[in-house]
Write a structure and sequence with these properties.
The chain folds into two domains: 33 residues; 32 residues, no CATH class. 78% of the residues lie in helices and 0% in strands. The termini are far apart.
């Protein structure tokens, strides 16, 4: 019974808490408008080593970006 209550509280905090909603939407907006070029840098962090080599990206810089 306690597990169900805990799950319900986590659900409400994640999806119905106004502060959580504002924080999530603010983060998504910042990524969408590429605030401070964070979205542009994250794009390369998800490349595999083979994809980065194919695009001519320096692998040592890619490792720093991924951290």
């Amino acid at each position: 019974m306690g597990d169900k209550v805990g799950d319900g509280i986590r659900f409400l905090n994640r999806y119905a808490n106004p502060a959580t909603i504002l924080l999530r939407n603010g983060f998504l907006l910042a990524m969408k408008i590429n605030l401070m070029n964070v979205g542009g840098k994250l794009r390369y962090a998800y490349l595999t080593d083979a994809q980065a080599q194919a695009k001519g990206i320096n692998l040592s810089e890619l490792k720093n970006c991924a951290q």
